[in-house]
């Protein structure tokens, strides 16, 4: 123990940063000094709150490999706290808010898994040092008595996303994001544009089943400095009917994009898009007087 006290703080933090969550939390209970080190060393976390252990296990199977470096924290709600969909969502947000409030100054990379974002958006907005944010609301494999299957096929628009960009009453919100991943989020063109403008260093943008995004958003990316800084743009199942070639024209103007290796989940979703696209292409007919491109 004396040898640890003799080490510089920076070295101790770097060492304990690689501990698994249970060991890290146990380390913080040994003294007030170690508790303070534990609090500042937790910089990456994947946080999921689930009504059952089965939901938690299935959710982990759906996580892409590039997120494997995060600490995994799974919270299983009690039976009393998960009787209905409403109570599950309320307690998911409350649990996530409590954890983020405690570590908001040290967290750099955050991924949260829940059914619907509500009150937890407030502590997220206060995280000035956050570099990457992933919000996963898409869990079609979940089975719950109080949930209709259509709940997972829609992402209704919500004002909750307004909390993630600055305004007169909230002059400073986030600001240092470099990566943003949204799944089944009812975010609109304007809301996402404002978030990107407030976080000009974002170079990795991933969107899945964000059904309220339109061609206007991709046109905005093509004509803005924000879009030209993107290295990665990943969007799947964002168009309800088919793959629209007008989006591809806008994406073709993003000259900084790089080609990456798709994951198994990417291949599945790409197959879905291609099948839909090929069924749609024969329906296109050149209008009279329209010039071929």
Could you please describe the fold and organization of this structure?
- This protein has 293 residues and is an alpha/beta fold.
- The protein is 38% helix and 13% strand.
- It is built from twelve helices and seven strands.
- It has helices at residues 2-6, 9-16, 21-28, 32-41, 53-61, 85-103, 121-125, 189-198, 215-222, 225-228, 245-251, 264-280; strands spanning 44-50, 71-76, 109-113, 132-136, 179-183, 204-208, 232-236.
- The chain has a seven-stranded parallel β-sheet with strand order 2-1-3-4-5-6-7, sandwiched between helices.
- Strand 3, helix 7 (121-125) and strand 4 (132-136) form a beta-alpha-beta unit.
- Helix 2 packs across helix 4.
- It is globular and about 60 Å long.
């Amino acid at each position: 123990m004396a040898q640890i006290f003799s080490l510089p703080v920076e070295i101790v933090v770097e060492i304990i940063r690689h501990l698994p969550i249970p060991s890290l939390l146990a380390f913080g209970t040994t003294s007030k000094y170690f508790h303070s080190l534990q609090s500042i060393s937790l910089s990456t976390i994947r946080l999921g709150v689930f009504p059952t252990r089965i939901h938690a296990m299935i959710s982990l199977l759906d996580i892409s490999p590039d997120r494997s470096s995060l600490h995994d924290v799974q919270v299983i709600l009690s039976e009393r706290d998960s009787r209905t969909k409403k109570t599950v969502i309320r307690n998911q947000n409350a649990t996530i808010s409590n954890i983020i409030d405690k570590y908001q100054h040290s967290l750099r990379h955050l991924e949260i898994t829940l059914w619907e974002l509500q009150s937890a958006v407030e502590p997220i907005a206060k995280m000035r040092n956050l570099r990457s944010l992933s919000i996963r609301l898409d869990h079609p494999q979940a089975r719950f008595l109080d949930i209709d299957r259509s709940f997972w096929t829609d992402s209704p628009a919500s004002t909750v996303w307004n909390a993630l960009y600055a305004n007169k009453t909230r002059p400073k919100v986030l600001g240092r994001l470099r990566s943003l991943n949204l799944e089944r989020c009812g975010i609109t063109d304007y809301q996402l544009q404002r978030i990107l403008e407030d976080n000009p260093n974002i170079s990795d943008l991933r969107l899945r089943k964000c059904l309220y995004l339109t061609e206007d958003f991709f046109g905005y990316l093509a004509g803005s400095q924000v879009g030209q800084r993107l290295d990665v743009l990943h969007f799947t199942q964002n168009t309800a009917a088919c793959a629209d070639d007008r989006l591809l024209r806008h994406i073709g103007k993003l000259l900084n994009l790089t080609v990456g290796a798709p994951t198994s989940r990417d291949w599945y979703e790409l197959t879905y898009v291609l099948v839909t696209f090929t069924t749609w292409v024969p329906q296109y007919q050149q209008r009279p007087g329209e010039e071929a491109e």
